[in-house]
Amino acid sequence: MVARILDAGRQVLAEYGYEGASTGRIATAADISPGSLYQYFPNKDAIVLSVLDRFSNSLVSRVTARMTDEFEQPAPVIVHATLETLLDGLDVERPLLRAAVEDGPRLDGGRTLRAFEERIGELVHAYLTTQRPALRAGLPLDAAVWTLVRTVEHVSVRYLLDEPPIPRERFLAELTHLSLSYLRAGD
């Protein structure tokens, strides 16, 4: 029943956004009564946060799997593949993405977003640790990971929400170049 409610919550968020979502709409989409919905969730915000948490966990799993699959590849290949997977994962219905980046932090003080960034940061840190000789001299790894994760995240979200006239492959190539240039000497 919880999964059914969360699936309905995602559908309603994707269709109406946070402001247009309501427990009534979610109950209708889940084909249950509002009273039944309240047995599992106290309010709309609890459903929205659970939906966004599922979204975040799914995205981290996808990025982790892709990085693991490409781990032995040269840096440009793994960076491009990872960024592509992140962009694909973020490229959901625009109202859902907007709810994740604008409403989620307001609802939980940014806890879900920070957890996502930390988990992705751990992956990036692990990878960069194996690449230490190729990184620019004196690169402060913790600061670089923090900066890189948030820069890539923000630019990717803005690309998807703003829909600039930049082809997706061109955007990925530029973001890959930006990331590699930041990390490596002479690239």
TrEMBL record:
Record has DNA-binding as a keyword: yes
Protein name (record): HTH tetR-type domain-containing protein
Organism: Streptomyces smaragdinus
UniProt entry tagged with the keyword Zinc: no
PANTHER family: HTH-TYPE TRANSCRIPTIONAL REGULATOR PKSA, HTH-TYPE TRANSCRIPTIONAL REGULATOR RUTR
Keywords, alphabetical: DNA-binding
Transmembrane segments: none
DNA-binding region residue numbers: 22-41
Pfam families: TetR_C_15, TetR_N
Any GO molecular function: transcription cis-regulatory region binding
Residues covered by the HTH tetR-type domain: 1-59
